[in-house]
From TrEMBL:
<comment type="similarity">
    <text>Belongs to the AP endonuclease 2 family.</text>
</comment>
<dbReference type="GO" id="GO:0008833">
    <property type="term" value="F:deoxyribonuclease IV (phage-T4-induced) activity"/>
</dbReference>
<keyword id="KW-0255">Endonuclease</keyword>
<feature type="binding site">
    <location>
        <position position="176"/>
    </location>
    <ligand>
        <name>Zn(2+) 2</name>
    </ligand>
</feature>
<feature type="binding site">
    <location>
        <position position="211"/>
    </location>
    <ligand>
        <name>Zn(2+) 2</name>
    </ligand>
</feature>
<keyword id="KW-0227">DNA damage</keyword>
<dbReference type="InterPro" id="IPR036237">
    <property type="entry name" value="Xyl_isomerase-like_sf"/>
</dbReference>
<comment type="function">
    <text>Endonuclease IV plays a role in DNA repair. It cleaves phosphodiester bonds at apurinic or apyrimidinic (AP) sites, generating a 3'-hydroxyl group and a 5'-terminal sugar phosphate.</text>
</comment>
<feature type="binding site">
    <location>
        <position position="226"/>
    </location>
    <ligand>
        <name>Zn(2+) 3</name>
    </ligand>
</feature>
<keyword id="KW-0862">Zinc</keyword>
<keyword id="KW-0378">Hydrolase</keyword>
<feature type="binding site">
    <location>
        <position position="224"/>
    </location>
    <ligand>
        <name>Zn(2+) 3</name>
    </ligand>
</feature>
<dbReference type="Pfam" id="PF01261">
    <property type="entry name" value="AP_endonuc_2"/>
</dbReference>
<feature type="domain" description="Xylose isomerase-like TIM barrel">
    <location>
        <begin position="19"/>
        <end position="274"/>
    </location>
</feature>
<dbReference type="InterPro" id="IPR018246">
    <property type="entry name" value="AP_endonuc_F2_Zn_BS"/>
</dbReference>
<dbReference type="InterPro" id="IPR013022">
    <property type="entry name" value="Xyl_isomerase-like_TIM-brl"/>
</dbReference>
<feature type="binding site">
    <location>
        <position position="256"/>
    </location>
    <ligand>
        <name>Zn(2+) 2</name>
    </ligand>
</feature>
Length: 278
């Protein structure tokens, strides 16, 4: 079964997101836990959550992905930024326990003036501060495009982070199509080879989510800029090959498009469902 959805807004609550997902034939979705540039998280309404949990069970919505704000930077060694990051992660994971959120996505962030090795170690240390043995939420590392001093840009760097985590069973990876393309992985011409490399370096059991997005810049550009699906340099056919790849049969997919209206996502989810051969 294809698990596919898109990015939705949490402004009107959890139930509203679930209802929007069903209205566009999605059976999953992702959302920001708070403003993507930081700030306080909205309080959880118990009645909204109860209605949401009942609705998701009734309509078969699963693998909902909560996305941490971009300003959370686990790779930094600056005390104020690190304190903010750990606060965000702790608060978000506590709220996800309330809403039975199975997946939490973080960006590995920027090492600034630190070495790559130190930046990777800082990310692992941040995870070790918030990942606990009994937690039910899996924390996912987003793949990065290699802009500036970002870490987590290669499969090897992601593996190095996970290798330093005390409870790696609660940590996985979200493969972002546009960012791995920008990093140089040829998901258009050699998807089999890319997935084989991921399996050798990290392990496909760690690939827990895929961002379906198209890229505005050429492969290897290290520029992570999205465009409408089918209008970029990855293209619809290559993204459709992702949802049909047997090694990704159990992985949920989330559409990301710039300034996309709900109708745009409905149109593109329908296109992917029509292209799905499962």
């Amino acid at each position: 079964m294809l698990t596919i959805g898109c990015h939705l807004s949490r402004k009107k609550g959890f139930l509203e997101m679930a209802e929007e997902a069903v209205s566009i034939q999605a059976n999953t979705f992702q959302y920001f836990t708070r403003n993507p540039r930081g700030g306080a998280s909205a309080k959880v309404d118990e009645k909204d959550v109860a209605a949401y949990l009942a609705y998701t069970k009734e309509h078969g919505i699963r693998d909902v992905l909560a996305y941490a704000p971009y300003d959370a930077n686990p790779a930094t060694d600056k005390t104020s930024e690190r304190d903010f990051t750990l606060m965000v992660y702790a608060e978000d994971l506590a709220r996800l326990a309330e809403v039975e959120g199975p997946l939490y996505l973080i960006r590995p962030g920027s090492r600034l003036s630190a070495s790559v090795e130190d930046g990777l170690a800082e990310v692992a240390d941040a995870l070790n501060n918030v990942v606990t043995p009994g937690m039910k939420t899996c924390v996912l590392l987003d793949t990065m495009a290699g802009e500036g001093t970002h870490v987590g840009t290669s499969f090897e760097q992601l593996a190095a982070i996970i290798d330093q985590v005390d409870h790696p069973e609660h940590v996985g990876v979200c493969l972002d199509c546009a960012s791995v393309w920008a990093e140089g992985y040829d998901i258009v011409g050699d998807l089999d080879g890319v997935l084989d490399q991921f399996d050798r370096v990290i392990g496909l059991d760690k690939l827990r989510a895929v961002h379906l997005n198209d890229a505005a810049h050429e492969r290897g550009s290290h520029v992570d800029r999205h465009t409408r699906i089918g209008e970029g340099l990855i293209g619809f056919e290559a993204l459709a090959a992702m949802i049909n790849h047997p090694k990704l049969a159990a992985v949920p997919f989330y559409l990301e498009e710039p300034d996309a209206a709900l109708a745009t996502y409905a149109h593109d989810i329908a296109r992917f469902r029509e292209a799905y051969r499962g």
